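debug: dumping io for the single-chain case to check the tokenizer round-trip. Nothing else runs in this session.
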Amino acid sequence: MGDLPAVLISGLVSGSTYALLALAIVIIFRSTDTVNFAIGDIGTLAVFMASTLIAAGLPVVFGLLAAVVIAGLLGMLTERVLIPPLGHGRNLLFGGV
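debug: decoded output
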């Protein structure tokens, strides 16, 4: 019984992460009419960036904020540079790219 609170908190953290990723995919699809699964890659890069910045001595708050800003800029760059050359084909085609 002693492990139950830790397991519940761990489950809530994992579930919240999945819910936020799903929400991000839905927001991107609704606003651009394009399925973009690169959000996982960009999110992973942001986590590695934040951990690297924090390990380098940057305060945690600034490391997290810098990682979010850089990930946002990378997402904008991806949307501006990589998506337009693909044209306006079917949504599932974009999901495979």
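debug: round-trip ok. The two ends are 47 Å apart (CA to CA).
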